[in-house]
Amino acid sequence: MRPATTNVKTLKIDGRDLSGRQEETILEVARQNGIFIPRLCEMEGLTDVGACRMCLVEIKGQNRLLPACVTAVEEGMEVTTDSERLQNYRRMILELLFTERNHVCSVCVSNGHCEMQMLAQRLGITHVHFPYRYPKEEVDASHDRFVIDHNRCILCTRCVRVCDEIEGAHTWDITGRGIDAQVITDLNEPWGSSETCTGCGKCVHVCPTGALFEKGRSVAEMLKRRQFLPYLTMMREENE
Amino acid sequence: MAKLLPFRPRIAVGMGTCGTGNGSEGVYHAFADAIDKRGLDIHLARVGCFGFCAQEPLVNVWLPGRPLVILHRVQSQHVDEILDDVMMGNIPTALALCKIEEWDHITAQVKYGTGYANIPSWRDIPFFKGQKKIVLRNCGLINPDDVEEYIAVGGYQSLYNVLIDNRPDVVIEQIKAAKLRGRGGAGFSTGQKWDFLRKAVAEKKFIICNADEGDPGAYMNRNEIESDPHSLLEGMLIAGFLTGATMGIIYVRAEYPLAVHRLERAIEQAKEYGLLGEDILGRGFNFNIELVEGAGAFVCGEETALINSLEGFAGRPRPRPPFPAQKGLWGFPTNINNVETWYNVAPIIARGPAWFTETGSAKSPGTKVFSLVGKVHNTGLVEMPLGTPLKTFVYDIGEGGVGGRAIKSVQTGGPSGGCIPHEMFDTPVDYESLAQLGSIMGSGGMVVMDEDNCMVDVARYFIEFTNSESCGKCVPCRVGLDKSLRILNRITSGAGRMQHMETLEELSRYIRDSSLCGLGQSAPNPVVSTLKSFAEEYRAHIEDHKCPAGVCGVQPVGETA
Question: Would you identify the CATH topology of the domain A8-82?
């Protein structure tokens, strides 16, 4: 028997015997061990919200599917990260997201570098079997350097979190609810006239799709640089 | 007691929101004016609602030594006639609905008197037959704005005993032994929940009353608070003492102005009487209860969204775990119970767990208040033992369909409950049986539908509701419900395809399994249950372009109806 004070948990993910610290999530342990679990809203360095539901996994003995990004590892847990049901549900999420707004890859600045597009390719999505909604969404190009194109937003709220938690500006937030939810700057003012925005561009680089991009980038030119986030978090932790 | 049973006649007008909606405000003022003008020696009081909504406004008349008589459908023009009768020592028999000779307030008994052989006892009225009023023990009989009347019927006695005994462990074991389960719908053991909070070690601990009743057609909690606010305070005070909570919060819908008003008054009075605040009942126990009004989002009835709302954030749910008992309001251990759960606390302590488990089924003892509404003859609030078959509600209490029309289905549990078809009306109404049928207990809504209701339209209506109330945080609920609604709209407008039925089923399964919170997880129930039990109605819309109930404006193709 292990002493009760231990904070190391041993578990099985996809049949492999692994271990993690008790505060770690299934997703973190899987990532450290090279096991791929798809996700769209989770990002290393930001708090997890469990919103996109891409990372749902099956846990033996549990009826419910649980999001790997917010579920802490437990002793003796047996996790399945890939099954036919999970694949179906993940495809369903992507299909719903693709039909929710106007995601047209061929004219998108992030074509070829988009996280959603990459997941869709990986899961073998060639078409959707729900009708498109074609909502009229706005493009706000009032900021000097950046643009938000709501047509490509999937409401992952990474921009909201990075702005609040890392930059400390809290320029972004969500307004409305349900299908009408939107990310907004300040109190739903044009980004360009936002008084809180520091122009740091972190939101642009954490955005998984082409919803946030730098001005002057044409189709497929918007490469996002994410390395700053783990680095910043690490440096801050060291300073504390 | 002198107020409840004075030495002169007492007339009490039922003035819940349901009563005032039917004109009881006018009736009350007519009584007040007439009594004043004629200089009569009559005690006039406002009470809450006795539950029989179809017969509102209700007025109770009591003459010393005689039974309490409930008059129904009283209008202002009846006032003079009633007063004439009362002054002669008579009862206006034409308006009499029933009489109450004695009443079990659980925490006390009141004997009104005997007589009036020609007026039926309340027990013999079909609507009340079989009802067991534990939660609603005081509703419609005492003045909700007067703490003295509550105390007269044994109110705050349980709190006093708990404080005097000072053995919280024992009392929590009693609540566990009574097998009281959460009346908000999930049915988790209340005693266990309290035990979690008691054992949690933290600087602060909170208990919250969830009074954000948002289901369309459900008003159990509203009536409970409007008619008997002190029972709620007593339940919370007891739990506060047992669990070592430092503060209580009541999260109530802003759309319930009368409930808010009565609670404010009750809190004020309880403080005045030393029942709330510092050094309660002189036992050194400090506890405060605060009232917070919700901003009108249905999802805030979900406990983590409610906590977010209390903290000043948008009402969007958080993933669980961590559960509120571990990390709740402001990060402190928190216990949340529905209004009705709190109402069961004082009776269990007064009479003991063995008495409580006598009622109801083995797994779910006690009673549950349901709002019986829709196409049924008698509508109103009914409190029945758990495990009562559904048909008893519809045919005995409700006395069948309006105008003798055939009843098709009952939807339980609010907008995310399933529709139970007529063939299944033998089902006992308890947590497990309803879940097996793809429905839920919910907070106790019960909507009866007859042959004039289109089940596809019913499903469409409820998806429209949950879709507009979805917070939009997680993809399955936000986009999935929108897709379901669009498909249902197509079917009801006559543009449906047969494969839509399959797509709806697939979508529903997915929304249920992968949504973040209870709203999404249960939202597809109306679709799934109607697809299962009323598939022929879907087919009629899709293949024949006909709505069998004549509700939907399907475009007739080839044939004019």
Answer: Ubiquitin-like (UB roll) (3.10.20)
Three-class secondary structure of residue B399 per DSSP: coil
DSSP code for A124: T
Whether residues B440 and B483 fall in one domain: no
* Whether residues B54 and B33 fall in one domain: yes
Q: Which of A64, A89, A92, A182 to mutate to test the interface with B (most CBs of B within 10 A)?
A: A92
Is residue A229 pLDDT above 90, yes or no? no
How many domains does chain B fold into? 4
Q: Please answer whether residues B23 and B62 qualify as being in contact, where contact means their C-beta atoms are separated by less than 8 angstroms.
A: no
Do B300 and B181 belong together in one domain? yes
What pLDDT shows up at residue B477?
A: 96
- Name the one residue in this structure whose structure tokens are 């909502």: A135
Name the residue type at position B231: S
Residue B232 domain-assigned? yes
Q: Can you list the residues of chain B whose pLDDT is less than 50? A: 558-561
Q: Could you tell me the CATH number of the domain that includes residue B406?
A: 3.10.20.600
Contact B483 A49 (CB under 8 A): no
Answer whether B473 touches A (CB < 8 Å).
yes
* Portions of chain A given CATH number 3.30.70.20: 104-239
Q: Look up the ipTM and state it.
A: 0.92
pLDDT tens per residue, range B170-214: 999 999 999 999 998 888 999 999 999 999 999 999 999 999 998
B134 domain residue, yes or no = no
Q: Do A176 and B472 touch (CB under 8 A)?
A: yes
**Which of B63, B121, B122 has its CA nearest to residue B90?**
B63
CA distance A193 to A187: 11
Rounded to whole angstroms, the Cα distance separating A90 from A128 reads: 13
User: What whole-number distance in Å separates Cα of residue B349 and Cα of residue B390?
Assistant: 30
Nearest by CB: B319 against A70, A100, A133: A70
Cβ burial, residue A112 (10 Å; 0-12/13-18/19+): middle
Edge-to-edge order in the sheet of strand B247-253: B289-294, B247-253, B206-211, B334-338
pLDDT-derived band at A6, boundaries 50, 70, 90: low
3-state class percentages of chain A: helix first, strand second, coil last, to nearest 5: 30, 15, 55
Helix (H, G, I), strand (E, B) or coil at B135: coil
B473·A70 Cβ contact <8 A: no
User: B289 — phi, psi (to 5°)?
Assistant: -120, 130
Shortest distance between the Cα of B218 and any Cα of chain A, in A, equals: 23
Indicate if B469 and B434 belong to the same structural domain. Answer: no
Q: Kindly state the DSSP code that residue B251 receives in the 8-state scheme.
A: E
Contact status of B515 with chain A (Cβ, < 8 Å) = yes
CA distance B414 to B306: 18
Q: Looking at B424-480, list the stretches that DSSP marks H as alpha helix, in order from N- to C-terminal side.
A: 431-436, 455-469, 475
Domain at B492, CATH number: 1.20.1440.230
Q: Residue A206 is which amino acid?
A: V
Q: CA–CA distance from B102 to each of B99, B111, B113 (Å)? A: 9, 4, 7
| pLDDT tens digit sequence for A38-52 | 999 999 999 999 999
CATH, domain range A104-239: 3.30.70.20
- Residue B155's pLDDT is 94
B404 and B480 co-located in one domain? no
CA torsion, ordered B543, B549, B554, B556, to nearest 10 deg: 70
The H or E element spanning position A184 is strand A182-185
Examine the domain organization and report whether B382 and B318 are in the same domain: no
Closest residue on chain B to A72 (Cα): B321
Which CATH number is B18's domain given? 3.40.30.10
Cα B164 from Cα B158, distance rounded (Å): 10
**What pLDDT is recorded for position B19?**
87
Q: In the structure encoding, which two tokens stand for residue B464, read together?
A: 């429209």
CA-nearest residue of chain B to A66?
A: B514
What domain range is B372 assigned to?
Answer: 367-450
User: Which one-letter amino acid corresponds to residue B320?
Assistant: R
